[in-house]
Predict the structure of Olfactory receptor.
Amino acid sequence: MAAENSSVTAFILEGLTDQPGLQIPLFFLFLGFYTITVVGNLALVTLIGLNSHLHTPMYFFLFNLSLIDFCYSTTITPKMLKSFVSKRNIILHAGCMTQLFFFCFLVISESFILSAMAYDRYVAICKPLVYTVTMSPEVCLLFLVGVYVMGFSGAMAHMGNIASLTFCANNIVNHFMCDILPLLELSCNSTYVNELVVFIFVAIDIGMPIVTIFISYALILLSILHIPSTEGRAKAFSTCGSHIIVVSLFFGSGAFVYLKPPSILPLDQGKVSSLFYTIVVPMLNPLIYSLRNKDVKVAFRKTLVRKIFS
């Protein structure tokens, strides 16, 4: 249902490109990405669920990160794939607002779950003697509730902000999904206040986790430098390597798109950049955490052997 102050009842998603020769190759490319994302994240969720030695705070957060990435990709990719094989990729106003809500909810939740994982690594390396008390199941659950509360409140704020806009004749969204900035471009009225609201909330949703992660890793680095043995330092670095790669990809691409005004970053360039945190990062996360993680490799082998012999 369209907003009361809007004459638009549906939007047309323009997609990633309008070049006919690229439509089918891109369809199969992103279908492959989506398949890897679904299989990789659900496999990681299954491995963590089935192996009791992975029932630790770090893998508790990783379990939720994989669930978020699976839902995140499923919110965006199927609709994007449709734009490659259909002449007009139509989405109803209510459907657009729904996609926007889940997109914001999941991306904000991911940013805060990454900061919770950074804090977990800080406690594990800098305060190992009190790790089990500091990161008890009750504390981890409180962290998780906080993550999803921040995601929900941020998503409601962004959706309410966009829902207050007036959309008139132009209903073609220059994107492959219902994203905030392309929808602001379609508004009939002034969007200065709305853009300010977006900038403030994005700064909070990206700024707070980044500060938490930066402080956590600064303290981790200081602690590692005081470890006398080279082997001990290498082991400490290896426990953080995967997380640092994921954080850099996710926050780097997100900040590049949302913390620059549209006049500096054109929408065509912005939607290509947004492919990183909407499509590429959810696909790479399970690969990064599994290929660089001995515990996950051992759990995979044990599960595989158990299934074969059963």
In short: The mean pLDDT is 84. Strands lie at 10-13, 89-92, 172-173. The CA atoms of residues 95 and 213 lie 34 Å apart. The longest strand covers residues 10-13.
